[in-house]
Amino acid sequence: MEFLYLDEVDSTNLYGKRNLEKLEDKTVIVAGSQTAGRGRLNRSWLDLGEGNLYVSIILKPASIFDEKFANLTQYLSLVICKLIESYGLKPEIKWPNDVLINGKKIAGILSETVMQGNNFKGLVLGFGINISAKQEDVQKVVDKQATSLSIELGKQVDGTEFLKRLINLFFQDYNKFLERGFEFIKHEYLLRANFLDKEICVKGFNNTQTGIAKSVTDNGALILEKDNERFVLTIGDIL
Ligand code: BTN
Q1: Would you say the CATH fold of 199-238 matches that of 2-191?
Q2: Which CATH architecture fits 2-191?
Q3: Cα(66) to centroid of ligand 1, in Å?
Q4: Which residue among 110, 123, 124, 130 is best mutated to probe the pocket of ligand 1, counting the most ligand atoms within 8 A of its Cβ?
Q5: Is the beta carbon of 39 within 6 A of some atom in ligand 1?
Q6: pLDDT tens digits, residue range 177-208?
Q7: Burial readout 91-115 (b: 16 or more C-beta within 10 A, e: otherwise)
Q8: Is 127 in the pocket of ligand 1 (CB under 6 A)?
């Protein structure tokens, strides 16, 4: 796999989408800073300064889109958790793919699919991880509480080293994940889920649904229960 380093870019995801044709499968685009970082559900992703990770992985797993590709964000959230655990911390997953420590967000993931007409061209799997942000930096994130690896550990962490380990871990089981899909990671994902059996409110693009989070399906969708009825949500954000 190749690493492509950019000092500054609008967004590594946008860069990946613009250049998808010429970028090889498994290229890892890393930016020193982003001026227009993108988040899920049309939000933005704030640049918290140098030493944090702004990364997109170009993936061209097949010439036809497969539903399992949509779960790669959940696979990546689990990989990020496992790596953070190796630093002695206890990260959790907020459905579908936010990584939190003590309820504060440390990593966000945004996957974008590139199509040309009806043809699937590839995926840009973007993620931001707060590595070296200080307390005054994470306070700039106003919509939710955030933290960083160095805040949690009380010491500096080498982002480049962290990224290398992350990419190795990601590709270790990547092929198995592509064969089996979410079911392959369901058990380990649920072990880290912080939303089970809680009354939650899930915001989609234009609706909000409340209920008790019961589990996730074999496809990674959220199962909510309300008034003895079950709802399955495939997209949204737990408020
Ligand atoms: C979210 O939690 O809403 C997803 C945030 C994803 C942010 C990353 S930073 C690198 C990549 N480029 C972007 O513009 N967004 C993703």
Answers
A1: no
A2: 2-Layer Sandwich (3.30)
A3: 22
A4: 110
A5: yes
A6: 999 999 999 999 999 999 999 999 998 878 89
A7: bbbbbbbbbbbeebbbbbbbbbebe
A8: yes
Going by pLDDT thresholds of 50, 70 and 90, the confidence category of residue 146 is: very high
Atom of ligand 1 nearest to the CA of 39: 3
Cβ–ligand 1 contact at 53 (below 6 Å): no
**Helical spans, DSSP H, in 86-217:** 135-138, 149-153, 159-172, 174-180, 186-191
User: What is the value of pTM for the model shown?
Assistant: 0.95
Task: Judge if the beta carbon of residue 12 lies within 6 A of ligand 1.
Answer: yes
Report the atom number in ligand 1 closest to the C-alpha of 41. 3
CA angle 35–41–45, rounded 5-degree value? 25
Residue 87 is encoded by which pair of tokens? 């630093």
Domain 199-238, CATH 2.30.30 — does that match?
yes
Q: What is the pLDDT of residues 19-55, one digit of tens each?
A: 999 999 999 999 999 999 999 988 899 999 889 999 9
Q: Name the residue ranges covered by the structural domains of the chain.
A: 2-191, 199-238
Give Rg (Cα) of the chain.
Answer: 17
